[in-house]
Specification:
The chain has about 300 residues and is of the alpha/beta class. Helices cover about 45% and strands about 15% of the residues. This is Coproporphyrin III ferrochelatase.
Length: about 300
């Protein structure tokens, strides 16, 4: 019997694929307003500092392929076909949904490569996908969040334990800084669950690791007139060194699921430089990328969403 095709729209932020595409990408982020020359130069220099690499696209491609393979394992009545939909690069979210329709998909699930829900991030992705799906006649259900999924937590706990072994002191003497991308403070007025979900993930990991020596910090805030959520990780590093004489720090960026600029520059270069100036030994947990536990997490939340909405 022929299996029923189910579309899976895998959504993420998007990235340029070359220095030449940076301006178009930055302009899209700024809602059509081209960046000032100095802003463009700064972003280009950051990419050049990580070797002129644009790893997010390749990492996302690998995650999507791995998810499709995982979804189609085992005996079930569906054939899952994965599509990409990016917020700020091609194929855009709308492109991914329209491609599903062109391929004859009538039923689909969308999932974002970000475990924590915010109306400004995951909510926005899901809204764009839903609106386009309605236009082209696709029944689409969306995963909202999966920040406490046991397989996700297991993958992150393994990374923390592996990284703690790199320090010359006992694990309990290492301050763990869990981080995620900052968002504008206005989300607090909306009672957005993003900050709370991040702290729940942090505590769950710390509890499984068996440490109380941790805190949460924000990173990669945008350069806008409006205030963004803090404290920023650079400020936290300075504070813990000066006020608590912390000399060993492990950064665990739980808000990110693959290697890209916010990891390879903001942590591996910017934070590492600050740590060296402060006399701090800083390590970072490895990114999830295509870790089977993370792919299992995605596959599980997709199939659960499909089953729940089938009643």
């Amino acid at each position: 019997m022929e299996k029923k095709k189910i579309g899976v729209l895998v959504m993420s932020y998007g990235t340029p694929e070359s220095i030449e595409q940076v301006e178009e990408y930055y302009t899209h982020i700024r809602r059509g307003r081209p960046p000032e020359p100095e802003q463009l130069q700064e972003l280009q220099e950051r990419y050049e500092a990580i070797g002129g690499l644009f790893p997010l696209r390749q990492n996302t491609d690998r995650q999507v392929r791995a998810l499709q393979d995982r979804l189609n394992e085992g005996d079930h009545p569906y054939e899952f076909v994965c599509y990409q939909g990016l917020k700020h690069a091609r194929p855009y979210i709308e492109d991914g949904v329209k491609q599903m329709a062109e391929d004859g998909i009538k039923e689909a699930v969308s999932v974002v490569l970000a475990p924590h829900y915010s109306v400004m991030s995951v909510g926005g992705y899901n809204k764009r996908a839903k609106e386009t799906a309605e236009e082209v006649g696709i029944s689409l259900d969306s995963v909202k969040s999966y920040h406490l999924h046991p397989q996700l937590l297991k993958a992150l706990v393994e990374r923390v334990n592996t990284s703690l072994a790199k320090f010359s002191v006992a694990a309990e003497q290492v301050r763990i800084l869990f981080t995620a991308h900052s968002l504008p403070e206005k989300i607090l007025e909306m009672r957005d669950p993003y900050p709370q979900q991040l702290k729940e993930t942090s505590k769950a990991i710390a509890d499984q690791v068996g440490t109380t020596n941790w805190e949460f910090a924000w990173q990669s805030a945008g350069q806008t007139a409006m205030p963004w959520l803090g404290p920023d990780i650079l400020d936290v590093l300075a504070r813990v060194r000066k006020e608590e004489d912390v000399r060993h720090v492990l950064v665990c960026p739980i808000g990110f699921v693959s290697d890209h600029l916010e990891i390879l520059y903001d942590i591996d270069i910017e934070c590492q430089d600050a740590a060296k100036e402060l006399g701090i030994h800083l390590e970072r947990t490895a990114s999830l990328n295509t870790d089977p536990l993370y792919i299992d997490t995605l596959a599980d939340v997709v199939t659960q969403t499909l089953q729940v909405n089938k009643g």
